[in-house]
Design a protein that fits this description.
Distance between the termini: 94 Å
Order of helices and strands: HHEHEEE
Structural class: alpha+beta
Helix content: 40-55%
Radius of gyration: 31 Å
Shape: rod-shaped
Largest sheet: 4 strands, antiparallel
Strand content: 15-25%
Number of helices: 3
Bound molecules: zinc ion
Length: 117
């Protein structure tokens, strides 16, 4: 074996051996070491997960969810015009359900206005 080949072979063996011993983490890390260090990969993914979890919490705080109220639970004093507009966007799932959103504890019923009404 030529001396330069032997040197290259020794370098390769050294790299492989280093990776084996640092895999699992002996403190020797480098940019991109997560490709071979499972613990570094886990830490990388946990950091990413924490960012996404925080983003999701922020989005959930801003989000307005449509909820549905059973027809029997609607306020009693709704005029028939308003009831018609609400009825247009209701649907039946065993009972008739009317969509609403809640903002700061206040309920807002959804209505659908049709030009021909
Ligand atoms: Zn590492």
């Amino acid at each position: 074996m030529k001396p330069e080949d032997r040197k290259r072979l020794e370098q390769h063996i050294s790299m492989i051996t280093d990776q084996q011993y640092t895999r699992g983490g002996n403190g020797a890390h480098w940019d991109g070491c997560a490709e071979v260090h499972w613990d570094c990969k886990i830490a990388e993914l946990e950091a990413e997960n924490a960012i996404l979890t925080a983003e999701l919490a922020e989005l959930n705080n801003k989000a307005v969810f449509i909820q549905f109220e059973n027809e029997d639970e609607l306020p009693a004093d709704i005029s028939s015009d308003i009831y018609s507009a609400m009825f247009n966007c209701s649907h039946v799932d065993v009972v008739r359900l009317f969509p609403y959103i809640k903002e700061n504890g206040q309920k807002y019923y959804l209505v659908m206005l049709r030009e021909d009404e």
